[in-house]
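User: Need the bound-state model for 1,6-di-O-phosphono-beta-D-fructofuranose:
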Amino acid sequence: MSSHISALQQARLGYTPKLPKALRGGSVGVEFGAATAPASHQEEIQALFPLTYGQPLVTITAGGNLPAGPLKVGVVLSGGQAPGGHNVIAGLFDALKAANPDTRLYGFLKGPGGVIKGKYQELTAEIIDAYRNTGGFNMIMSGRDKIEKPADLAACKANLEAMGLDGLVIIGGDDSNTNAAVLAEYLQREGCKTRVIGVPKTIDGDMKNDYIEASFGFDTAARTYAELIGNICRDAQSAVKYWHFVRLMGRAASHVALECALQTQPNITLISEEIQAKGITLGEIVDGIVQIIVDRAAAGRNYGILLVPEGLPEFISDIKTMIEELSTILGTEEEYLRGLADHSERVQYLESQLGDHSARVYGSLPADIQEVLLRRDSHGNVPLSQVETERLLIDLVSDKLRLLQSHGQAEAVKFSPLGHFFGYEGRCAYPSNFDADYCYSLGYAAAQLVRAGVTGYTANVRNLTRNSDEWLAGGVPVTMMLNMEMRKGKPTPVIKKALVELDSEPFKFFAANRESWGVEDAYIFPGPIQYFGPAAVCDAPTVTLALEKGVKVQA
Ligand code: FBP
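Assistant: Bound-state model below.
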């Protein structure tokens, strides 16, 4: 790391994250609740996780006496970056060292692949101190490998045993926490002493349920994008000549787009889950956008802001079907396709293999999007962050407006569109105070779960809309959050992704207000994240979390 650091980084290194009361004292204990079960597929899940199924919820309490012997613990960052990851590691380190200064913490390098390959580094106070309250995962880096195949599980076990690890903390999203459960069960079955604890991470905000109120990183990422969107709203109002189409990261769920809409009140926000629920087609989406553009032009406003979630393509029924058909073709013929001479040969071949409607949908897309749709990541997902949906919408809206104008309609419209994508910009921002505190507390909680000797749990911290004094820390058994879903044609246990619910308070609030945000300018300008200052400016939770917890919010 460079020896020259910014003034803000210097100041943030000295920030002391807030901890829940129960985690602050010298001695802590755990309380076990009643046995748990997943909401569905109980028998299948029990059969797959006979040893870790049904474990009780854990609450961490002040004043207990968890074992204080020296431990060896590993930590790994998995998947996409999310602000606050370094604070999870710092919280873990501080809690372990507070319990016993001889405990040692090891960071596996470049994600779960580091556990499989046995690549790690001991994390000392000197290393940790340089990363406190900073964004990014660069302390030990991340990766998207999955610990899943029998050979990978066996390699992990061999490495964990060789290192003599008592615990492994996996910081990741729904897939990585599912993997943590698979590894926990496997290690227990094999008689390996390493217990596995997950920590809920993802800027997408889709790892949440009754026990996990938010995934870390969502707060900071959404605020970073909201600042930029607010700035663009102000620019649009000043220049009065551009329509900005902004795509926002979030592989599947639209939580990021919804939160940004709630923070900034732009003219149009598409919510994928609503589009899917109502079976809205791409043509209908375009018509809806054009209508607002025409109405604003009639009111003398040839400018505006539209937010589109990254995950949208997979929520439009005909595109979703087409992507599924492509996945099936890729499953058996990827090599043949890659061997074809060029793009047009690939398109020709695919059009002959896809169903009629899917072939038409695929054929209608721009060449660069057609190519991205042929890629898959290690989890079998289309890399949607590379699909320029905002540009596709701009093209389709422009075509529609031209058509209307050729019929003498929409004459007041002057449409000058600009496209933006806000994604990677938000994933490594300095964590907001909320994320800095939340992550540090999660790390602290994970350490107590390792000390308590439990395995197959995700650390949780609840009561997040209250003062951090009142936050409650503990652990939720991963098996309790699992359900069975079809993955690569096979029923597979996975943590259910939390999508935007149309009957949730955040969506209802948005739906009740969006009409007035369309034609009028009701923009809100949140400005940059503030790290020092009054709590109302620096420590507030997201609007999504506030509404979910019944806190009153003003439009
Ligand atoms: P995680 O689910 O691993 O946290 O990653 C989320 C995400 O940031 C998505 O929003 C985005 O689609 C994806 O990662 C991008 O992946 P990559 O970092 O591999 O380009």
